[in-house]
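Let us practice reading a record.
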Amino acid sequence: MNLSVGTLASVPLGLLLTGCPLTDHYQLQQEDPAGVQMGGRSGDDPPMAGAPAALGGSETGGAAVAAAGAASVGGGDNFTSGGGGGDVEAGGNGGGETVCTTACNVERACVANSCTSGWVGMAAPPAKLEARSKAASVAMGKAVFVWGGQDNDGVALNNGAIYDPTLDVWTYLLPDAGSPSPRIMATAVWTGSSSNKVIVYGGTDASGSNTFKDGAVFDVAGNSWTQLPPNSMISKRSAPFGYWDGTRAVFFGGLNGVNMLAAADRFDLKAWSTSTNMGDPGLLGYSAIAVDGTVMYLQGGVIGTTRQDKVYAYTSSSDSWASLSKSLSVRTGAFAAWDGTHFVVWGGQDDVGLRSDGKAMSGMTWSDMTPSGAFSARRIGFRRSGWAFQVKPGVIAMLGGQTSIDGSSDTLATDGATYTVESGQWTAIPEWPSLETHEYGIGVWTGEEFVVWGGRNHNVSTLTGERWAP
């Protein structure tokens, strides 16, 4: 498979990847990016004079930009500032002024050795990349992987892209003989930088009538796809929750048509296995879910038509389920994240309406979250809107969601808040700049920035995206 690449030829995608396993909602431990800021361009932008050739094969339309006098390619395949001296931004003429040693993503300035926060826009993707909704997505290091989904006409897609927020550039990914068939509502899991692969599994056809139990593995370094091995024991799953536990990908729950699914299917890059049903919560859907890196926590959800208040933990390394102490009232669609020491659950919907309360569990003990200063009552719309993730130890962020139970797309939120668990402090996150709803779009936390892109706005697919940093 050939790639149309929007980054400098000397900087492989591997430089964007950390060596740490994924934690809750793909939250990553951070490391400095491999270079200074550069102007972002899509994979279809023409190369500037003197720019290096694009990576790989015949798709050569995606050379990146090397700003004259601002950056050049160093001998170690890293970006260095023009004239040498490393990844710094120096004020004035360098005559003893303060030097900023923090490398910031494109569109973010370095002030007092910190990168500016808030919302910024995103470069337009390559023209080949159709606007889409219901795509699979995952953070892979500092980059964002996107695959499949459906276009504005409802046609299922079998292509994708990798977006690099550090340089604000896109890499277009073509299908090949091993890539997944066109699909929507699939799930993507990154395996970490040691093996550096993305597993795309499940989903449905465009109509939603045919649910898949197949998929493929994308080898980032090899730029190629390999079909997942078949296994008659695993389930057909649309929109399962997926994570990498350090050894295997775990795909829990999801739907087969309109029916909820129990248990989890696991893939260790060699073979499939199915989780034990001993202690399994059963046909549970729409629960609050978070992962601490190895253990998946569940709160609430619905079985049949009955909302739940039970709490479970699944440890994939021992393939064991445990029932934990419960404290929150029954609810579905609550925001949830792991903050480093607590399973944090907020909001959702009960049998009366939307909730604006929550609790945090450490060990087996629940503590109330402060309601004062919280954002409006809301719930996560399943794969539609609503994301939660750890910003840093002890702090989680919640964005988007649905502010009404009537299901209208006009009630999808475009703002959010962070919550500091120990102090109980809420801090508002303003609305993203476009105010587009990004309904069924992607929302991915890279460890440095939250990237929200695509989806639908007033039932029209959009290519708009935006990035938030705390």
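A brief commentary: The mean pLDDT is 84.
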